[in-house]
Amino acid sequence: MNQPNFANLRCPWGQTRDEIIQNFHDHEWGKMKLEDQYLFEMLVLQLFQSGLNWRVILHKRENFRKAFKDFDPVAVASITEREVNRLVGDASIIRNRRKIESAIQNAKAILMIQAKYGSFAKFLQEMVPMQIMHNPEIFEDVPTSSDVAKNVAQKMKEEKFVFVGPTIIYSYLQSIGLINDHIECCPFKYQG
Questions:
Q1: Which residues are Zn(2+)-binding (predicted)?
Q2: Which domains can be identified in the chain, with CATH numbers?
Q3: pTM over 0.90
């Protein structure tokens, strides 16, 4: 008797030979990881992903890590105008001044959040206290926003975050595991 090919049961975007995309799908997307540095990393990557796609961003992830000082919010918050100009010329990342400056502003906002709430994770969990598990049968049933994302986006804007609309935040919540939108037949819905 033939064993089913579980790789073909993954969410459609995870059914790829691209190991970077597949690893992200299998081991990060929808998996709760609430460490502030990782939360900031995902926020920066989501910000740069806007208007592009995950493949482009994930293939440049290590370059972003170098450019944004291992996603250390303290280090990123202190990036100077001279460093911004250098980043705008860095072909190994997305050379968008507005997005680069937004990442710096968001690092500053995270530092303010940490001072106010103790951690960025605690701030997020006040709005989303436990993982939201959706049960889509097909990937077309996965939403691109929700009332939760709108609420989180609004609260983040009030706390001086930028480039955090409801669609970006919905995708962000998926990437950090506060929302799990793996389709029901995906073998990675409940495992990492």
A1: 11, 25, 182, 186
A2: 33-180 (1.10.340.30)
A3: yes
